[in-house]
Amino acid sequence: MGVSINISVFIQMIGFLILLLLLNIILYKPILSTIRKRREEINSLKEEATRLMKEAKQKEETYNTHISVVEEEARKQYEEKVQKAFRERDKLVSEKNAEIREKLVQEEMKVEISLRDEMDLVENMAEELSKVAFSKVVGK
């Protein structure tokens, strides 16, 4: 018994080759095309994500820089206002001290005048008393 090759083997081989050709056209190429498109889409999305991350990082740096500038300006304005308030306070204190010194001088002058008036009155009274005492002692 030997293997005999007849025409049906050739027909089966041709049928198998046609089946491979049809499967390649119907299934294999569309599946490979879909996989390639998905890979391209994934790569495109990865590139877009990378670009967006870089953009977000740049915007964050810009934001942080802007915040730093605004904070520095606010700190300078605060310092300027504090210094202005201290200058105004010092000016008011100086003015009030000058007013108080002036009032003190005026009051000291009033006290001195009052003291002189009282001293004059005491001297006059002492003189009057001494005259009365002298006249009583001398008998006039």
Structure commentary:
With 140 residues, this protein is mainly alpha-helical. The protein contains 1 helix and no strands. The longest helix is centred in the middle third of the chain and has 132 residues, at 7-138. The radius of gyration is 58 Å and the shape is rod-shaped.
Give the topology, please.
Layout: H1 7-138
Which structural category fits the helices and strands?
A: mainly alpha
Poorly predicted parts = none
In whole angstroms, the N-to-C terminal distance is 195 Å
Bin the strand percentage. Answer: under 5%
What is the number of strand segments? 0
Written as H for each helix and E for each strand, in order along the chain, the element string is H
- Give the helix level as a range of percent: over 70%
Radius of gyration: 58 Å
What quaternary form is this?
A: single chain
- The helix tally amounts to 1
Most strands sheet: none
The pLDDT mean sits at: 91
The coarse overall form would be rod-shaped
Keywords:
0% strand, single chain, 140 residues
In short:
This protein has 140 residues and is mostly helical.
